[in-house]
Structures are given as C-alpha cells and as structure tokens.
Write a structure and sequence with these properties.
Blueprint lengths: L3 E9 L13 H7 L2 H5 L3 E9 L17 H20 L3 E6 L5 H12 L3 E6 L20 H5 L5 H4 L13 E6 L4 H9 L3 E4 H7 L1 H13 L4 E7 L21 H12 L4 E7 L10 H14 L5
Parallel strand pairs: 1-2, 1-3, 3-8, 4-5, 4-7, 5-6, 7-8
Helix pairs in contact: 3-4, 8-9, 9-10, 10-11
C-alpha cells in the first residue's frame, strides 16, 4: 500500500458560528484517542500543527438574524495561514473543527495554497444554505455554504476581497436530510449539486459520490471534503451534536470518502462537530479516527 507523503493536522476549536457545549473539545478528544498514531499508518510524515489561536473581538448577538459575525470573520481569517502553508509545503491538511462556519477561511487557505480551482463536497445532515432572510436560528453555522456561494451579507461573503468564494456548480451537498423549506427551495433553484439522503439511498453511497465528483470535475482541479459528523446515522455515531435519523453508516461513509480519494483530486479533509461530552470513554472518538484513516488510505485492501 502506498502512503501519503506528508500530512498536517490542524485544530480549529472555536464555536463562533454555533452554540453548544462539548463541540469545542472535539479536536483535542480525537487527538487523545490516538489520531496522530493512526495517521502514521497512511502517511510517511504526520505533523500536528496544533490548534489555531485567535484574539477574538467581543461576541455580538445583537442581530437575531445574524449572530456573532465579527468573531466568525476573525476565526476564518486565522484559519487561512495554516491551511495555505500546509498546501504550499506539499502536506495534505486534516482539519479538526468544532463547527462549520470556519469553512470560509479553510476554502481561502486552499485557494491561496493551491492556486487551482477547488470544489467542495459538503457532507452534512443539513444544507447550511440559509441566509439572514431565511434562517430560523440566526446561527452562521447554518448559512456557511450559502455564504461561500456569495449569498448573504457582504461582511461574510467578501471576507477576503472576492466573492463568491465558490461558484454554485463547484459545491456538492451530500447526505442532507433536514432542510428548512426555504433553504430547500433555494437549493433546488441553484446550481449546487444536491444529493439528499433519499438520492444517496437510491443510487448507493459510492455510486452517488462518484457521480458527484464527476459533476465537480468539470469545474475544478482539486476537491476538498468537509464532513460534519451528523451526516452519520446516530445509531452508528453517538457523539453527534444534532442527531438526525437515517444517516450514512460508517461503512457507507468510508466507502464514499475513499471514492473521492481514488480520484486523485482530494486536497484536504475536515472532520467537524464531534461532541466530546457525549463520549466520556473515548470509544466514539476511536471509531471516528478509524473512519478518517480508512477514508484516506490509498488503494483498496
């Protein structure tokens, strides 16, 4: 079995675009459960870059339709350098995050580090395609995919001086099964490649992801995979923050992620929203670590 040449682990333990106890502890919990040692099975060099450190501005929840935007911007800006620099050194970034609103900084890091068009496969039980006009919660972690596509306030869509960060046709949402009605309507009218869980079941997870990567390949050279672990069925993974029934099994998820790896275009993987408070014994963390390693393993056993 061939190995990845070099791999960098980057932690983003901030909950600026979401609320909830335990998810900020996720990156450390996965490390404690032996992720770095596991990754050494599949990479010649594994470097832990630690967690990003951000001097946060005061929290601002004054707008109930757009909670805490200043802190989201600060963390996104801080996420760019480690992703960018890892790419420039030829390292494959594995990103451990607490919640999804940091994705704008991650995508910008890939843009600067690779200088090639990047597509996104977003595995999540939710679409995260709301805007301040449609959001039921005001949480930016439920808007981040729409923000990438240029939908939403300029403060967030234009953090890095260019918008949109991704064309809608460069985005796949995979495994969604809890979409707000206005969000679903926007997605169905967009050019985003939407693979709901019903569609994934209809095609089979591996065939669905292969179709998705074929769709993306017309618009990008590289593919970044971003996984909120609530895409998994809660019977398979107990440490999800927001349980939504009828998700991917661990086997289906590993098979789908390996299919992305086998395209040769995968440039990074993020694993987000692991709730360490729901895993006091560390058994779910070890399970998730095995999924990460199996997903990145080059070649079939």
């Amino acid at each position: 079995m061939s190995k990845l040449k070099a791999l960098s682990v980057i932690g983003i333990p901030y909950t600026v675009g979401w609320k909830g106890e335990g998810i900020d502890e996720g990156p450390s919990a996965l490390r404690r459960a032996g992720l770095l040692k596991e990754l050494q099975q599949i990479a010649e060099e594994v470097v832990d870059l630690g967690n990003i450190v951000v001097d946060l501005p005061p929290r601002d929840d004054t707008n109930p339709k757009l909670l805490n935007p200043d802190q989201v911007v600060a963390v996104c800006m801080a996420a760019v350098p480690p992703v960018r620099d890892a790419c420039r050194r030829g390292c494959f970034p594995v990103i451990l995050g607490s919640e999804d609103s940091v994705i704008m900084g991650i995508i910008e890091g890939f843009r600067q580090g690779l200088n090639e068009p990047v597509g996104l496969i977003y595995l999540d039980a939710h679409g995260d395609f709301n805007t301040p006009e449609t959001t039921p919660s005001g949480l930016i972690g439920g808007m981040d995919v729409a923000i990438l596509a240029g939908r939403g306030p300029d403060q967030l869509t234009n953090i890095f001086g260019h918008k949109p960060q991704l064309g809608e046709e460069q985005i796949v949402i995979f495994g969604a099964r809890d979409l707000d009605p206005p969000e679903r309507e926007m997605l169905e009218r967009s050019r985003v490649h939407l693979y709901t869980m019903d569609r994934v079941r209809e095609l089979g997870a591996e065939r669905a992801i292969k179709e998705a990567t074929d769709n993306l390949s017309r618009f990008c050279k590289k593919i970044y995979t971003h996984m909120d672990i609530d895409v998994l069925d809660p019977n398979e993974m107990k440490a999800v923050h927001m349980s939504v029934p009828d998700g991917l099994t661990l086997a289906e998820c590993a098979s789908a992620l390996r299919a992305v790896q086998e395209t040769g275009k995968l440039c990074g993987l993020a694993v987000m929203v692991f709730n360490a408070r729901k895993d006091p014994e560390g058994t779910e963390a070890k399970k998730l670590n095995r999924l990460i390693v199996d997903s990145l393993r080059q070649g079939r056993d």
